[in-house]
Amino acid sequence: MGLTRQRLDALGRDLPRILQDYRRRVGELFAEYVRGELQKQHTRGTNLYGERYPRLKRGGQPMLDTGELMYAYVVRVTDSGRLVIDNTSPHTIVDHDGRHTHLPDERGMPEKWKQKLAQIRAVEARKLKL
Q1: How far apart are CA 113 and CA 79, in angstroms?
Q2: Read out DSSP for 45-107?
């Protein structure tokens, strides 16, 4: 089945909108996943990179006192599909020893997140109507 000139013209007109919709859908699905991962790290007791949080001297679950930090994450997607992560809690600076990180640091996106993003992109690419 070949593409006709009319179909190519239509694709040329529609492609920017199709790609913008694709980026938005991928961004929204990935943001939902990231929100869950950011919250789960507090109940798992491991940071985003799978490293265990140091045990508390007073006992209890590390990084989970009131739950305020856990539920204060703001994950949004810009119009271009870029993910922005922030935490609105005043307790976001928990320690400077590098062992209490709860947001991505200089190591970049965790490998698990990269795999999930690739999976989301693949599923959404198959749905494209070209």
Answers
A1: 21
A2: TB-TTSPBPPPPTT-S-TT-SSSTTTT-EEEEE-TTS-EEEEE--TT----SSSSS--S--TT
Largest Cα–Cα separation, the chain: 72
pTM of the predicted protein model: 0.76
Rounded to whole angstroms, the Cα distance separating 15 from 128 reads 10
Q: What is the pLDDT of residues 19-49, one digit of tens each?
A: 888 888 999 999 999 999 988 888 888 888 8
Give the DSSP letter of residue 43: H
Name the 3-class secondary structure at 109. coil
pLDDT in tens, 43-74: 888 888 888 877 777 666 656 666 677 788 88
Cα gap 112→80, rounded to integer Å: 23
